[in-house]
Amino acid sequence: MNTPFQFTVLSPQEKIDWLRLARTELIGPKTFFETLKKYYNPTQALEALPDLLSKKYPKKNLKIPSIQDIQQELEQHDKLKADLIAFVEPEYPEILRHIADPPPVISVLGNRHLLQKHALAIVGARNASLNGKKFAEKLARELGDYGYQIISGLARGIDTSVHVGSLSSGTIAVLAGGIDHIYPYENTDLYYKIAEQGLIIAESPFGTIPQASFFPRRNRIISGLSLGVIIIEAAKQSGSLVTARFALEQGREVFAVPGSPMDPRSYGTNKLIREGATLIQNSDDVLSSVESFIKIQPPLQGQKENPYSQEISLLNNKNDEQTHHILLNLLSSSPIGVDEIIRECHFSMSEVMLALLELELAGRIQRYPGGQVSLKG
């Protein structure tokens, strides 16, 4: 998301106004930012909101949270030792700012400094096989030990194994409900371990019980925080495939672990591979792909790694300039699917995704929902 907002630490009153606007019924991320751009700050937006809502939803009596409502939520966060980070505040993860419809505010519990590290997401089936769970735990541990932050969704199956494997390196769990609502309940102990050793993130207000419709929103954050998403076991209707779709739309790398065609849990991963996802069988497969555009300096022997010293190293040689030139020539002011670009230019999926990310950061292209891009007007 391209934004004209000034990034600053909000005053207590500014934060209350920001949260009142964000927590108003039917004000999703898209409407939130459209309203804020029109009225410049949340205070002015709140003053205009009753009239806007009455025109847009004439048959609904939508309630704007009171100052007391927001103060109560802030107190609940304080009691849990959690915090709320607004989109404009410095601690909000930069990588998340650039997705379509980013969360206006996120709740965080744990080590928020982990948000500044390069991250990879690993997700998969809830009814995972034993081998799938073992592989997920091993992969998460190895990638975490190498220096990547590991993100998942605290669900049963693969997600649980991912968090267990990356606890020692500081795993991140993204919840569908409120920051205080542990789901599934069987992961209560794991939740508290992550809060102590890693980080828990939620977009929904405090006390929100997760509903089925909340999980796709959660999934866009999982992929949005990550450089790439790894899928381990996914049936035909798996929510992990939703995460993979968001990853593609956000210009992230998608990895998939192949499986037996006799196992329904392999349908989704095998399909992703047929469609261009990178096939992986171990952590080296992931690292060799990701490190083609991310340079991580490993610590010297006996020297403790500084987890905040990792930097993105954008490609800048002549071959990469040629790639940019070819892609720009394929684009116009009308949006086109990334899959069509890949077919036309004959570059690999990872090469195209990297080049598009660089062009987006340079302000040359515009992304749209559905994995489409165009030249920026």
Structure overview:
The protein has helices at about 10-20, 30-40, 40-55, 65-80, 95, 130-145, 160-165, 190-195, 215-225, 240-250, 265-275, 285-290, 320-330, 340-345, 350-360, and strands at about 85, 105-110, 120-125, 150, 170-175, 200, 230, 255, 280, 295, 310, 335, 365-370, 370-375. It is an alpha/beta fold. It has three domains: about 10-80, no CATH class; about 110-290, Rossmann fold, CATH 3.40.50.450; about 320-375, Orthogonal Bundle (Arc Repressor Mutant, subunit A), CATH 1.10.10.10. The chain has a nine-stranded mixed beta sheet with strand order 1-2-6-5-4-3-7-8-9, with helices on both faces. The chain has a three-stranded antiparallel beta sheet with strand order 12-14-13. α10 (about 240-250) links the parallel β7 and β8 (about 255). The protein starts with 11 loop residues before the first helix and ends with a strand. Residues about 295-320 have low confidence and may be disordered.
Task: Give the percentage of residues in beta strands.
Answer: 5-15%
Tell me which CATH architecture of the largest domain applies here: 3-Layer(aba) Sandwich
Order of helices and strands: HHHHEHEEHEHEHEHEHEHEHEEHEHHEE
**How many strands, what sense, and barrel or not for the largest sheet?**
9 strands, mixed
Task: Calculate Rg over CA atoms.
Answer: 21 Å
Q: What's the helical proportion of residues?
A: 40-55%
Could you say which structural class the secondary elements and strand pairing correspond to?
alpha/beta
What is the terminal separation in angstroms? 15 Å
Which regions are unreliable across 5 or more consecutive residues at pLDDT < 50? 295-318
Strand numbers in spatial order across the main sheet: 1-2-6-5-4-3-7-8-9
Query: CATH fold name of the largest domain, please?
Result: Rossmann fold
Number of helices: 15
Task: Give the overall shape.
Answer: globular
Number of strands: 14
Task: Give the mean pLDDT.
Answer: 87
Specify the CATH class of the largest domain: Alpha Beta
Total separate domains: 3
